[in-house]
Write a structure and sequence with these properties.
The chain is of the alpha/beta class. The strands form five sheets. It has a nine-stranded mixed β-sheet, with helices on both faces. Strands 3-4-2-1-5-6-7 form a seven-stranded mixed β-sheet, sandwiched between helices. Helix 16 (457-477) links the parallel strand 12 (442-448) and strand 13 (511-517). Helix 16 (457-477) packs across helix 20.
């Protein structure tokens, strides 16, 4: 009790001290703000006084110049009207200046808008002065108005821009003092964005960067300069000028350029070994958010550049808005991006299912921060657990299911083929079955180009998934869902988990489709994170084969196309995403080394380790037997389904399930019988010997 009291007293003391500290801090902040406010008021008062004196002096000097700069020569008929009227003119002019906000601008950043306001204010002031003086006071010489208003304009504008001129002189002096220790920068782009970046660098106190030269492809700008910085040529002159000016950094500020032009320029810059930064898109320019801080490090996907992928947001919104959406594998790289984009389209409810609780927790916290109004349910569970899957579907009744849960690592699955079948193929069947039994509107399978003519068990298991999707679609259209077997390890349980006594819903309308695409940059299992880690550790960077190629797409691009494809679904389709041109992994690795400011095979060695079990030199997007139809989106195509005997396939699949759950060594051979296009290969490119699997696995039964 005593300890508790002492802790309570300490807590009170801490709280009181904390409150006192907060009051002191608040007092300090109040004084700072009041000082700043007072400082601003003093500047405004000073400008008002200066303007008043400038207006009086301007028209007096106009009279003085008119009469040969001799005060005694000015007639009283002109001098007396000036005395009578000048204070009225000063008061009216100051009101005009205030109305046109000449006392509200920050003259350190004055631009043509401030110049325009000063011109308008001076013109209105002249009209007032001429009209009132002529009508109510006296007629004055024409030179009085002309010279008077010219001098008033020069005095009023001069003091304001003089402040900025002094700041520029001081900045130039500072530039001279820091040039010796500065990082010399090459700026690519002499347009508006480039000029904004240049100004921001000149005015930034926290950086020692100095722009030494500018590159622009517009030949009309060559030989000219911007703020004293020469425009030295186009993209072909980048390498020579990097050496001439001792460039350490290159800033790319051409947001409106095509991705092809950006890629070509970045590939040239990549040869220099300089640090590179890029203004990502034109939206920064539109928003006025063009500063040094808006420049991002050049990523490897910029070097692979493609034109931005466009999707019909209205179609996606109509598809998802107000719907209950379930994403299996929602914590993974593809699944989490699906969740982000679905959350942005206002679903009625978003359900995330994942076996790995850390990933599930991360995406849960992210979505809670970004979308506090979202009805979010995050569940931990396996797609292999039929009881768990059934409970989730019956409780939440999802309208749309995105099935992204899968084992994806090719070499690991080669060593554990039964796990690939259990998780990828049978897990897909269980999720699809419950989607049908609960009459979901749509089931979208995330497939892979490795399912095309697969040479590994992972690709073959995903091809089985595509065949499962097509089987469900066929049975529903033929109105024979009862022919779909219960592929559950405990299907005969009588405890209400999964039984044969369930009733099929009437008028099943579930549309089953698959979306097939290649590798995504930065995903779990992608080569990019592996290469980055190897570079950080000093190398070597390991590439399996110098000629191996892959198709690549960014995760957001792939997911947006998945959502778009879902909107086109009619049932049974295999949608194929256009991945653009294939990329050599060797080139990818070397570009990544260069982006790190290092030289391939000099600073970081590139080693070739040979193809891994089940790995192909190139991936295909479509099987030879499949035709291809276009959709409204040029990047999404529909493969014509390959005909197969559905009932025979389902019987084979049932046998495969039991063999995989028994961890039988016959599983790869069974898969080879079910998937005609599956041709397993080893490291040397030959077919795997069946006795290899027999040695690896205990044959049951």
């Amino acid at each position: 009790m005593k300890n508790e009291k002492s802790r309570g007293n300490n807590s009170k003391g801490y709280n009181s001290n904390n409150q006192a500290s907060n009051r002191v801090e608040q007092g300090i902040m109040d004084r700072i703000f009041s000082t700043i406010k007072c400082h601003g008021e003093i500047i405004v008062a000073g400008l008002v006084m200066y303007d008043a004196i400038a207006i009086m002096a301007s028209f007096f000097l106009a009279l003085w110049f008119r009469f040969d700069c001799r005060f005694s020569s000015i007639p009283k008929g002109f001098l007396q009207p000036y005395y009578h009227f000048i204070l009225v003119d000063v008061g009216a002019s100051l009101i005009i200046f205030w109305w046109l906000r000449l006392y509200h601008s920050i003259w350190k950043f004055a631009s043509y808008m401030e110049l325009l306001r000063t011109i308008v204010a001076t013109a209105i002031s002249l009209v007032f002065h001429f009209a009132v003086m002529t009508v109510f006071v006296a007629r004055m010489p024409a030179s009085y108005y002309i010279f008077g208003i010219i001098m008033q304009f020069c005095f009023v504008l001069g003091i304001r821009f003089l402040y900025r001129f002094v700041l520029l002189l001081r900045a130039s002096a500072n530039d001279g003092s820091r040039n010796s220790k500065a990082d010399h920068v090459m700026l690519i782009g002499a347009g508006k964005a480039g000029q904004m970046i240049l100004r921001d660098i000149k005015e930034a106190k926290e950086t020692t960067d100095v722009v030494s030269c500018i590159i622009d492809d517009d030949i009309n700008t060559w030989g000219r300069n911007i703020d004293g910085i020469p425009i030295v040529g186009g993209r072909d002159d980048i390498l020579s000028n990097v050496e001439e000016y001792g460039i350490k950094k290159i800033f790319l500020a051409i947001p409106s350029a095509t991705m092809e032009d950006k890629r070509e320029i970045l590939n040239i810059c990549n040869e220099t070994g300089c640090e590179m930064r890029n203004l990502p898109g034109v939206f920064q320019f539109v928003n006025g958010d063009v500063t040094v801080s808006s420049l991002k490090e050049v990523a490897v996907e910029d070097l692979l550049g493609r034109e931005p992928i466009k999707v019909n947001l209205n179609e996606i919104f109509d598809q998802l808005s107000g719907k209950v959406c379930l994403v299996s594998g929602g914590g993974g790289s593809i699944g989490s991006e699906l969740c982000r984009q679905i959350a942005a389209h206002k679903p009625k409810q978003l359900i995330i299912l994942d076996i790995y609780e850390n990933n599930a927790y991360d995406i849960q916290q992210e979505l809670k921060r970004k979308y506090p109004e979202l009805d979010l349910v995050v569940l931990v569970g396996s797609v292999r657990d039929s009881r768990r899957v059934r409970t989730i579907f019956e409780e939440y009744k999802p309208n749309i299911v995105y099935h992204a849960a899968a084992h994806k690592h090719v070499p690991l699955m080669e060593d554990s083929p039964c796990e690939a079948i259990k998780n990828n193929s049978i897990g897909t069947y269980k999720i699809a079955y419950e989607a049908m039994m609960n009459n979901a509107e749509r089931f979208v399978l995330i497939s892979t180009d490795k399912a095309v003519n697969p040479t590994n068990i992972m690709g073959a298991s995903k091809r089985l998934c595509e065949m499962i999707v097509q089987s469900f679609d066929r049975m529903i259209k033929e109105e024979t869902p009862e022919k779909l077997p219960l592929l559950f390890a405990h299907s005969e349980d009588e405890d209400g988990a999964i039984t044969k006594h369930r009733k099929y819903p009437k008028n099943i309308k579930t549309e089953f489709v698959a979306v097939r695409f290649g590798n995504v940059l930065g995903s779990n299992g992608s080569v990019i994170p592996l290469f980055k880690k190897q570079i950080e550790e000093g190398g070597p960077v390991t590439v399996t084969h110098p000629d191996i190629i892959r198709y690549f797409m960014t995760i957001p691009e792939a997911v947006s196309l998945v959502l778009q494809a879902g909107a086109y679904a009619k049932g049974g389709e295999i949608f194929i995403l256009d991945m653009g041109e294939p990329v050599k992994i060797d080139t990818l690795a070397r570009n990544l080394i260069k982006l790190s400011g290092l030289k391939p095979d000099v600073d970081i060695k590139v080693e070739y380790t040979g193809l891994r079990p089940g790995e192909k030199l190139f991936e295909e997007k479509l099987m030879a037997e499949e035709g291809m139809r276009r959709t409204k989106n040029d990047l999404i195509h529909i493969g014509k389904p390959i005909d197969f005997d559905v009932e025979e396939f389902l019987n084979q699949l049932e046998e495969l399930m039991y063999e995989s759950y028994n961890n039988c060594g016959r599983v790869p051979m069974l898969v080879e019988n079910i998937v005609p296009t599956y041709h397993p290969v080893g490291v040397d490119g030959d077919k795997y010997k069946r006795d290899v699997y027999k040695k690896m696995f205990r044959v049951v039964g």
